[in-house]
Protein backbone atom coordinates (compact mmCIF):
# COMPACT_ATOMS: atom_id res chain seq x y z
CA UNK A 1 0.00 0.00 0.00
CA UNK A 2 1.46 3.39 -0.97
CA UNK A 3 2.16 6.01 1.67
CA UNK A 4 -0.67 8.47 2.28
CA UNK A 5 -0.94 11.57 4.44
CA UNK A 6 -4.60 10.58 4.93
CA UNK A 7 -3.36 7.79 7.20
CA UNK A 8 -1.66 10.22 9.60
CA UNK A 9 -3.84 10.86 12.63
CA UNK A 10 -3.73 13.84 15.00
CA UNK A 11 -6.14 13.48 17.91
CA UNK A 12 -8.60 16.21 18.87
CA UNK A 13 -11.42 15.93 21.41
CA UNK A 14 -14.92 15.24 20.14
CA UNK A 15 -17.63 17.80 20.86
CA UNK A 16 -19.72 15.07 22.50
CA UNK A 17 -16.96 14.51 25.07
CA UNK A 18 -13.48 13.01 24.93
CA UNK A 19 -13.40 11.12 28.26
CA UNK A 20 -16.46 9.34 29.59
CA UNK A 21 -16.93 7.10 32.62
CA UNK A 22 -19.64 4.61 33.59
CA UNK A 23 -20.15 2.09 36.38
CA UNK A 24 -18.24 -1.17 36.09
CA UNK A 25 -20.21 -3.70 34.05
CA UNK A 26 -21.86 -1.12 31.78
CA UNK A 27 -22.31 -2.45 28.25
CA UNK A 28 -19.50 -1.12 26.11
CA UNK A 29 -19.50 0.20 22.56
CA UNK A 30 -19.42 -2.05 19.51
CA UNK A 31 -17.55 0.39 17.26
CA UNK A 32 -16.09 3.88 17.03
CA UNK A 33 -19.49 5.26 16.03
CA UNK A 34 -21.98 3.24 18.07
CA UNK A 35 -24.15 5.09 20.57
CA UNK A 36 -22.99 4.87 24.17
CA UNK A 37 -25.36 3.99 27.01
CA UNK A 38 -26.63 7.04 28.87
CA UNK A 39 -24.76 5.94 32.00
CA UNK A 40 -21.49 7.10 30.44
CA UNK A 41 -20.81 10.57 31.88
CA UNK A 42 -18.61 13.18 30.19
CA UNK A 43 -15.73 14.24 32.46
CA UNK A 44 -15.02 17.55 30.76
CA UNK A 45 -11.75 19.11 29.71
CA UNK A 46 -8.55 17.05 29.67
CA UNK A 47 -5.07 18.58 29.86
CA UNK A 48 -3.29 19.68 26.69
CA UNK A 49 -0.96 16.66 26.76
CA UNK A 50 -3.93 14.43 26.01
CA UNK A 51 -3.54 10.76 26.88
CA UNK A 52 -0.41 8.67 27.35
CA UNK A 53 -0.87 4.94 26.85
CA UNK A 54 1.85 2.70 28.28
CA UNK A 55 2.11 -1.02 27.53
CA UNK A 56 4.86 -3.04 29.14
CA UNK A 57 5.91 -6.66 28.78
CA UNK A 58 8.49 -8.15 31.11
CA UNK A 59 10.40 -11.07 29.65
CA UNK A 60 12.87 -13.67 30.85
CA UNK A 61 15.40 -15.08 28.38
CA UNK A 62 16.22 -18.73 28.87
CA UNK A 63 19.62 -19.81 27.64
CA UNK A 64 21.15 -23.14 26.85
CA UNK A 65 24.58 -24.22 27.85
CA UNK A 66 26.91 -22.12 25.73
CA UNK A 67 24.82 -18.95 25.96
CA UNK A 68 22.33 -19.35 23.13
CA UNK A 69 18.83 -18.00 23.81
CA UNK A 70 16.39 -20.88 23.38
CA UNK A 71 13.21 -19.45 24.84
CA UNK A 72 11.76 -16.07 25.85
CA UNK A 73 9.13 -16.18 28.57
CA UNK A 74 6.73 -13.32 29.14
CA UNK A 75 6.47 -12.89 32.89
CA UNK A 76 4.28 -9.80 33.12
CA UNK A 77 2.03 -7.56 31.04
CA UNK A 78 0.47 -4.26 32.08
CA UNK A 79 -1.38 -1.45 30.34
CA UNK A 80 -2.01 2.00 31.80
CA UNK A 81 -3.33 5.37 30.64
CA UNK A 82 -2.25 8.70 32.07
CA UNK A 83 -4.05 12.03 31.68
CA UNK A 84 -5.02 15.18 33.59
CA UNK A 85 -8.48 16.30 34.64
CA UNK A 86 -8.82 20.09 34.36
CA UNK A 87 -12.32 20.61 35.77
CA UNK A 88 -11.42 20.49 39.45
CA UNK A 89 -14.85 21.69 40.66
CA UNK A 90 -16.82 19.26 38.50
CA UNK A 91 -18.55 16.79 40.84
CA UNK A 92 -18.25 13.95 38.31
CA UNK A 93 -14.50 14.52 38.05
CA UNK A 94 -14.17 14.54 41.83
CA UNK A 95 -16.11 11.26 42.01
CA UNK A 96 -13.69 9.70 39.54
CA UNK A 97 -10.62 11.01 41.39
CA UNK A 98 -11.69 10.41 45.00
CA UNK A 99 -14.42 7.77 44.73
CA UNK A 100 -18.16 8.03 44.30
CA UNK A 101 -18.85 7.42 47.99
CA UNK A 102 -16.47 10.20 49.02
CA UNK A 103 -18.22 13.01 47.14
CA UNK A 104 -21.48 14.57 48.34
CA UNK A 105 -23.32 17.30 46.47
CA UNK A 106 -25.82 19.51 48.29
CA UNK A 107 -27.15 22.31 46.14
CA UNK A 108 -24.21 24.48 45.08
CA UNK A 109 -21.82 22.82 47.59
CA UNK A 110 -19.56 19.82 47.06
CA UNK A 111 -17.96 17.92 49.93
CA UNK A 112 -14.97 15.66 49.23
CA UNK A 113 -13.63 13.19 51.79
CA UNK A 114 -9.96 12.23 51.40
CA UNK A 115 -9.28 8.79 52.84
CA UNK A 116 -7.49 5.49 52.25
CA UNK A 117 -10.39 3.66 50.62
CA UNK A 118 -9.38 2.02 47.31
CA UNK A 119 -10.78 3.84 44.32
CA UNK A 120 -13.57 2.06 42.44
CA UNK A 121 -13.23 0.18 39.18
CA UNK A 122 -15.19 1.69 36.29
CA UNK A 123 -15.72 1.50 32.55
CA UNK A 124 -13.99 4.24 30.52
CA UNK A 125 -14.29 5.53 26.94
CA UNK A 126 -11.90 7.90 25.18
CA UNK A 127 -13.18 9.49 21.96
CA UNK A 128 -11.02 11.56 19.60
CA UNK A 129 -11.27 12.71 16.01
CA UNK A 130 -9.05 14.12 13.30
CA UNK A 131 -10.65 17.01 11.38
CA UNK A 132 -13.98 15.15 11.30
CA UNK A 133 -12.56 12.68 8.76
CA UNK A 134 -11.53 9.91 11.15
CA UNK A 135 -12.59 8.76 14.59
CA UNK A 136 -10.63 6.80 17.17
CA UNK A 137 -12.33 5.24 20.18
CA UNK A 138 -10.77 3.46 23.14
CA UNK A 139 -12.85 1.41 25.57
CA UNK A 140 -11.52 0.18 28.88
CA UNK A 141 -14.09 -2.28 30.28
CA UNK A 142 -12.43 -2.32 33.70
CA UNK A 143 -10.13 0.53 34.72
CA UNK A 144 -9.09 1.82 38.13
CA UNK A 145 -7.29 5.02 39.04
CA UNK A 146 -4.24 3.76 40.90
CA UNK A 147 -2.23 6.95 41.37
CA UNK A 148 -2.84 10.68 41.57
CA UNK A 149 0.09 13.05 41.15
CA UNK A 150 0.71 15.90 43.57
CA UNK A 151 -1.99 18.57 43.30
CA UNK A 152 -0.65 22.11 43.17
CA UNK A 153 -2.89 24.82 44.65
CA UNK A 154 -1.42 28.19 43.72
CA UNK A 155 -2.59 31.47 42.18
CA UNK A 156 -0.33 31.09 39.12
CA UNK A 157 -1.75 27.78 37.94
CA UNK A 158 -5.09 26.01 37.56
CA UNK A 159 -5.81 23.00 39.76
CA UNK A 160 -5.53 19.75 37.84
CA UNK A 161 -5.56 16.07 38.72
CA UNK A 162 -3.03 13.98 36.80
CA UNK A 163 -4.01 10.36 37.20
CA UNK A 164 -2.94 6.92 36.08
CA UNK A 165 -5.60 4.35 35.17
CA UNK A 166 -4.67 0.67 35.37
CA UNK A 167 -6.50 -1.44 32.78
CA UNK A 168 -7.70 -4.87 33.90
CA UNK A 169 -8.62 -7.81 31.68
CA UNK A 170 -12.28 -8.50 30.95
CA UNK A 171 -13.80 -11.98 30.69
CA UNK A 172 -12.14 -12.37 27.28
CA UNK A 173 -8.72 -11.50 28.66
CA UNK A 174 -8.64 -8.07 26.98
CA UNK A 175 -7.94 -4.90 29.02
CA UNK A 176 -8.51 -2.37 26.21
CA UNK A 177 -10.34 -2.21 22.89
CA UNK A 178 -9.63 0.31 20.14
CA UNK A 179 -11.54 1.18 16.97
CA UNK A 180 -10.79 3.54 14.09
CA UNK A 181 -13.52 4.81 11.77
CA UNK A 182 -12.42 6.45 8.54
CA UNK A 183 -14.80 9.05 7.21
CA UNK A 184 -17.23 11.45 8.83
CA UNK A 185 -18.98 10.15 11.93
CA UNK A 186 -22.72 9.45 11.76
CA UNK A 187 -24.96 12.31 12.80
CA UNK A 188 -28.34 12.00 14.50
CA UNK A 189 -31.22 14.42 14.23
CA UNK A 190 -34.79 14.86 15.37
CA UNK A 191 -37.27 16.45 12.95
CA UNK A 192 -40.41 17.94 14.49
CA UNK A 193 -43.37 19.55 12.73
CA UNK A 194 -44.59 22.12 15.25
CA UNK A 195 -48.02 23.76 15.20
CA UNK A 196 -50.05 20.64 14.27
CA UNK A 197 -50.22 21.08 10.47
CA UNK A 198 -53.22 19.59 8.71
CA UNK A 199 -51.90 19.71 5.17
CA UNK A 200 -49.11 20.73 2.86
CA UNK A 201 -45.54 19.51 2.67
CA UNK A 202 -42.02 20.10 3.92
CA UNK A 203 -38.50 19.53 2.68
CA UNK A 204 -35.25 18.40 4.31
CA UNK A 205 -31.68 18.98 3.15
CA UNK A 206 -28.37 17.24 3.77
CA UNK A 207 -25.40 19.57 3.51
CA UNK A 208 -27.73 22.08 1.78
CA UNK A 209 -28.90 19.57 -0.86
CA UNK A 210 -32.74 19.62 -0.61
CA UNK A 211 -35.08 16.67 -0.93
CA UNK A 212 -38.23 16.54 -2.97
CA UNK A 213 -41.39 17.65 -1.16
CA UNK A 214 -42.52 15.35 1.69
CA UNK A 215 -46.17 15.17 2.79
CA UNK A 216 -46.96 16.66 6.22
CA UNK A 217 -48.19 13.25 7.48
CA UNK A 218 -45.52 11.11 5.79
CA UNK A 219 -44.58 7.78 7.36
CA UNK A 220 -40.92 7.32 8.27
CA UNK A 221 -40.30 5.16 5.18
CA UNK A 222 -41.35 8.05 2.92
CA UNK A 223 -39.00 10.45 4.73
CA UNK A 224 -36.20 7.91 4.39
CA UNK A 225 -36.86 7.49 0.66
CA UNK A 226 -36.69 11.24 0.11
CA UNK A 227 -33.36 11.49 1.95
CA UNK A 228 -31.93 8.35 0.32
CA UNK A 229 -32.53 9.91 -3.11
CA UNK A 230 -30.03 12.67 -2.37
CA UNK A 231 -26.52 12.48 -3.88
CA UNK A 232 -24.05 11.14 -1.35
CA UNK A 233 -26.71 9.59 0.91
CA UNK A 234 -28.21 6.53 -0.78
CA UNK A 235 -30.42 3.78 0.59
CA UNK A 236 -27.76 2.50 2.95
CA UNK A 237 -26.82 5.94 4.24
CA UNK A 238 -29.90 6.90 6.23
CA UNK A 239 -32.31 5.44 8.75
CA UNK A 240 -35.52 7.09 9.90
CA UNK A 241 -37.77 6.10 12.77
CA UNK A 242 -40.85 7.73 14.27
CA UNK A 243 -44.58 7.95 13.74
CA UNK A 244 -46.38 9.38 10.73
CA UNK A 245 -46.24 13.16 10.94
CA UNK A 246 -43.22 12.99 13.26
CA UNK A 247 -41.24 13.52 15.28
CA UNK A 248 -38.77 11.63 13.12
CA UNK A 249 -35.37 10.39 14.31
CA UNK A 250 -32.90 10.56 11.43
CA UNK A 251 -29.43 9.00 11.38
CA UNK A 252 -27.03 9.86 8.54
CA UNK A 253 -24.47 7.06 8.64
CA UNK A 254 -21.89 8.99 6.60
CA UNK A 255 -22.44 12.21 8.53
CA UNK A 256 -23.74 15.49 7.26
CA UNK A 257 -25.77 18.46 8.47
CA UNK A 258 -29.54 18.08 8.28
CA UNK A 259 -31.72 21.15 7.86
CA UNK A 260 -35.28 21.66 6.70
CA UNK A 261 -38.06 24.00 5.64
CA UNK A 262 -41.69 23.92 6.66
CA UNK A 263 -42.81 26.80 4.44
CA UNK A 264 -45.16 24.49 2.54
CA UNK A 265 -47.10 23.33 5.60
CA UNK A 266 -50.73 24.46 6.00
CA UNK A 267 -53.36 24.49 8.75
CA UNK A 268 -52.50 24.46 12.43
CA UNK A 269 -51.05 27.38 14.38
CA UNK A 270 -47.58 28.97 14.30
CA UNK A 271 -46.29 26.30 11.94
CA UNK A 272 -42.60 25.54 12.12
CA UNK A 273 -40.25 22.71 11.24
CA UNK A 274 -37.48 22.09 13.76
CA UNK A 275 -34.36 19.98 13.17
CA UNK A 276 -32.41 19.28 16.34
CA UNK A 277 -28.98 17.73 16.83
CA UNK A 278 -27.80 17.30 20.43
CA UNK A 279 -28.38 20.70 22.06
CA UNK A 280 -28.36 22.67 18.81
CA UNK A 281 -31.63 23.46 17.04
CA UNK A 282 -31.97 24.59 13.46
CA UNK A 283 -35.43 25.84 12.48
CA UNK A 284 -37.13 26.62 9.22
CA UNK A 285 -40.34 28.61 8.81
The N- to C-terminal Cα distance equals 50 Å
Q: Can you count the beta strands?
A: 21
Low-confidence segments, given as residue ranges, are: 279-285
Strand/helix succession? EEEEEHEEEEEEEEEEHEEEEEE
Helix-and-strand structural type: mainly beta
Biggest sheet architecture: 9 strands, antiparallel
Task: From the alpha carbons, calculate the radius of gyration and give it in angstroms.
Answer: 25 Å
Write down the overall geometry: globular
Count of DSSP-assigned helices: 2
Taken as a percent bin, the fraction of beta residues is over 45%
Mean pLDDT: 92
Instruction: Give the helix proportion (percent range).
Output: under 10%
Précis, in short:
The protein is 6% helix and 46% strand. By secondary structure, the chain is mainly beta.
Structure explained in plain terms:
Helix content is 6%, strand content 46%. The chain has two helices and 21 strands. A hairpin with a 2-residue loop joins strand 13 (199-206) and strand 14.
Amino acid sequence: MPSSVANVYAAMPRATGTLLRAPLGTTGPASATSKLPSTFVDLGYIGEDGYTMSESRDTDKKKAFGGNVVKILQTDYSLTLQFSFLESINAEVLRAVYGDDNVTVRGPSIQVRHNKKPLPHASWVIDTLDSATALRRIWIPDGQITSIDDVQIVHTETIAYQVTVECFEDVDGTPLYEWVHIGRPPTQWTVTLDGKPTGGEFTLAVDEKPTAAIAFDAVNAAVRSALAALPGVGAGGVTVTGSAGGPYQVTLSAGGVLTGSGSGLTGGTALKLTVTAAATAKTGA
